[in-house]
């Protein structure tokens, strides 16, 4: 930041990159949130005198801005009703399901939309207030769809980028939303709009042509005033070196050995790690395992399925329903197929530190990533990074963005239970040579496209 507290480079995201913790003396302290985006952007933030604009995660609380790790934290407050209507409502019960192939029905409420617009305006204003003349602003994800155009209106001098971390749907689904034109025009305020896959970028360009009547040639849209907007794919990745180092850390290896022991030293460990979200295909995946154990295709004495579901959006109806369904399903399967003290599915509804995740990845013989739709899915890439040896196998849904890059995974259609069951068994029983061949190729991909390549490619194209 300069002396007048203006920033040359800003990230605007629904969430701030810090979590509030309590130190040994009981005082609140802010710690960097785990996650690749923050790791990738921190060096740029420091170099450019950056600011991160976002919500700290609690309703009805106003927090003063502060400096953190050499850049500025700019909190945007949200009231309780805004959390309900903007965050839980329009972001996570309208856009989220709509953009994930409507695997749950999206809800359309005019009040949610009004609040969504008002909150997007507040984020845009907060960014406009701290941006230096001609600064670069990078807006993140579907919660802030309208910020690029609102910000351009307030500050035409800024260079504005937007990245959508989730899929961008085809016209047939997108057209459902009553405010489709406004949503498309929200993104047209940016100079560069990034998507996970080329398909998302072309869906967007097609819709922009149709709904806003703009002209487009290749990846470039020309606005009526002559301004250019580019729409391109930038597949996001992870800090693969960081995960590899974690997996090789002796403390993590010790934790891994302990975990294996706790699971009863099984011959085969299948692992799923997901946010508890209906897009992740958990119902189908758990049913598939239930049948494999029931039909003796997996032996409960030899195999275990460890599923971690991280709590998420717990007040949203579809998420509550999902939690109950999974509890019921897991309980039923374990009561029928498991033994006393020896469940076939070890299920935890909890979040774990990255060290424990790395320990889990490293003991898993088969990683099971079977979403019904997913923008990318970083768990698949983290698993590969935690296997610098040739051990392991990845079962991956064709509907995850990652399947476009990790072509050597055992690819499944999560709606096809029989196909998924067959592939799960194949992934576990293929020869070490076959499994190693696949892992090697995927490792090459993951280590040659890391999170800082993603950020650098996007920022380069934005002209930073
Ligand atoms: C997805 C979204 C992110 C979001 C994250 C966690 O990855 O793309 O924008 O931050 O889920 O969800 P939450 O609702 O807890 O922020």
Automatic annotation (TrEMBL):
Belongs to the glycosyltransferase 20 family. It comes from Luteococcus peritonei. It comes from the Bacteria. PANTHER family: BCDNA.GH08860, TREHALOSE-6-PHOSPHATE SYNTHASE. InterPro entries: Glyco_trans_20 (IPR001830). Gene3D superfamilies: Glycogen Phosphorylase B. Pfam families: Glyco_transf_20. This is Trehalose-6-phosphate synthase.
């Amino acid at each position: 930041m300069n002396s007048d507290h203006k920033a040359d480079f800003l990230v605007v995201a629904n969430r701030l990159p810090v979590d509030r913790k309590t130190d040994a003396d009981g005082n609140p302290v802010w710690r960097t949130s785990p996650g690749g985006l923050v790791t990738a952007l921190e060096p740029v933030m420091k170099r450019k005198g950056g600011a991160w604009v976002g919500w700290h995660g609690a309703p009805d609380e106003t927090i003063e801005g502060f400096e953190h790790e050499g850049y500025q934290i700019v909190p945007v407050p949200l009231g309780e009703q805004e959390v309900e209507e903007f965050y839980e409502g329009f972001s996570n019960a309208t856009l989220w399901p709509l953009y994930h192939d409507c695997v749950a029905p999206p809800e359309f409420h005019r009040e949610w939309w009004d609040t969504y617009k008002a909150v997007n305006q507040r984020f845009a204003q907060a960014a406009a207030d701290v941006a230096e003349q001609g600064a670069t602003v990078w807006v993140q994800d579907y919660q802030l769809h309208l910020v690029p155009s609102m910000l351009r209106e307030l500050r035409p001098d800024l260079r504005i980028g937007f990245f959508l971390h989730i899929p961008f749907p085809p016209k047939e689904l997108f057209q459902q939303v009553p405010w489709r034109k406004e949503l498309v025009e929200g993104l047209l305020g940016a100079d560069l709009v990034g998507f996970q896959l080329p398909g998302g970028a072309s869906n967007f360009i097609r819709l922009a042509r149709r709904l806003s009547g703009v002209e487009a040639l290749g990846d470039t849209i020309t606005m009526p005033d002559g301004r250019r907007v580019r729409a391109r794919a930038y597949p996001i990745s992870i800090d693969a070196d960081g995960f590899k180092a974690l997996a090789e850390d002796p403390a993590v290896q010790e934790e891994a050995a302990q975990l294996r022991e706790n699971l009863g030293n099984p011959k085969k460990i299948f692992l799923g790690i997901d946010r508890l979200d209906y897009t992740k295909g958990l119902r189908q995946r758990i049913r598939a395992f239930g049948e494999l154990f029931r039909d003796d295709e997996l032996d409960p004495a030899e195999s275990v399925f460890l599923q971690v579901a991280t709590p998420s959006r717990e007040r949203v109806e579809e998420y509550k329903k999902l939690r109950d369904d999974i509890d019921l399903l897991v309980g039923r399967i374990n009561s029928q197929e498991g033994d006393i003290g020896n469940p076939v599915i070890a299920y935890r509804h909890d979040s774990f530190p990255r060290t424990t995740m790395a320990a889990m990845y490293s003991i898993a013989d088969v990683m099971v990533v079977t979403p019904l739709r997913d923008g990318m899915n970083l768990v698949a890439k983290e698993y590969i990074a935690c296997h610098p040896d040739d051990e392991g196998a990845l079962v991956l849904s064709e509907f995850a963005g990652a399947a476009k890059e990790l072509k050597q995974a055992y690819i499944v259609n999560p709606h096809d239970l029989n196909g998924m069951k067959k592939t799960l068994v194949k992934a576990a029983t293929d020869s070490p040579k076959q499994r190693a061949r696949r892992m090697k190729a995927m490792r090459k991909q993951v280590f040659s496209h890391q999170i800082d390549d993603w950020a650098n490619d996007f920022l380069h194209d934005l002209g930073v």
